[in-house]
Design brief:
alpha+beta; five-stranded antiparallel beta sheet; four-stranded antiparallel beta sheet; globular; binds flavin-adenine dinucleotide
Length: 260
């Protein structure tokens, strides 16, 4: 690990001004990705601005029929919520107890790992990301592999989830890390059907053919004759693109059955 200046501000205003004043600063949430990256010397920030002392970034609340989750809410806190069981179930399947007790919603989505679970939740549930600068629809937030619509000095403050009429998440986990080889969130919210896929491609995506079929008939059998094109999917030591394409359909059907 290279040397850096460590800061632990207690207000969002101080956090952003510390980052702006740094030569090459980095925010830190639970450190679950950042610390291993620093240990491996894959990054050498001049300053690390720890967000864990900022009370306004924490907490989970219901607000006007929406579940609003603070960026610093740990996965274990989300797993303990009851308003959207599909979301709680997804959070409960992330990593292991240590990761769930330190990893945060904001850190996960800012990192935008192609195999992370939350991107499927945000896109499938049609969530809204709130930052200190913007409000961004989930569909516009994830822009590529490890890429988001965030500016360098932008802090995610919370994410708002509308309550779906029906939803479920099904995941085929990597048996070692528990990251998603493929994970699918299926949701019906106010007459709209969404199928969001993580793990399979460079970034989360919506399976639009599946969405159309389920809009007419919300049953696993509605997907029987459909398939996912493997051409743009990931292929690695864990699974080929063809196997991932197969898993997307199987996970989507399992999620529909669980949500019905
Ligand atoms: C062993 C292991 C297993 C895991 N398994 C899974 C899994 O099954 N599924 C899964 O989805 N994830 C998994 N993860 C990832 C984990 O869940 C964390 O969410 C992820 O590592 C991000 O960690 P963090 O919240 O501690 O953020 P950090 O590591 O502190 O930060 C990550 C990045 O986000 C930025 N950032 C953090 N907070 C904010 C914010 N509020 N605004 C703007 N930028 C911010 C940081 O600058 C940094 O670039 C696993 C991780 C480990 C170590």
């Amino acid at each position: 690990m290279y040397a850096f200046e460590y800061h632990r501000p207690t207000t969002l205003a101080d956090a952003t001004s510390l980052l702006k004043g740094a030569a090459d600063g980095k925010f830190m949430a639970g450190g679950q990705t950042l610390i291993p990256t620093l240990k491996q010397r894959l990054a050498s920030p001049s300053d690390v601005v720890d967000l864990s002392g900022i009370a306004e970034l924490g907490g989970v609340r219901e607000e006007g029929g929406r579940l609003v989750i603070g960026a610093m809410a740990r996965h274990a806190e989300v797993a303990a919520t009851s308003m959207i069981p599909a979301l709680a179930h997804l959070a409960d399947q992330i990593g292991d107890p240590q990761v769930r007790n330190l990893g945060t919603l904001g850190g996960s989505i800012a990192n935008a790992d192609p195999a992370a679970d939350y991107p499927a939740a945000l896109v499938g549930l049609n969530a809204t990301v709130h930052t200190n600068q913007h409000t961004i629809a989930a569909d516009d937030f994830f822009t590529g592999m490890f890429e988001t619509a965030l500016n360098d000095d932008e802090v995610i403050t919370s994410v708002g989830f509308p309550k779906p009429d029906k939803a479920a998440y099904a995941k085929f986990p990597n048996p070692a890390s528990r990251y998603a080889i493929v994970g699918v969130m299926v949701a019906q919210t106010g007459g709209q059907t969404r199928v969001a896929v993580t793990g399979a491609g460079p970034s989360v995506f919506r399976a639009s053919e599946f969405e159309s079929a389920l809009a007419g008939n919300f049953a696993a059998s509605a997907l029987d004759g459909l398939s996912i094109n493997p051409d743009d999917l990931n292929s690695d030591i864990h699974a080929s693109a063809e196997y991932r394409a197969h898993l997307v359909k199987v996970m989507a059907q399992r999620a529909v059955t669980a949500a019905s």
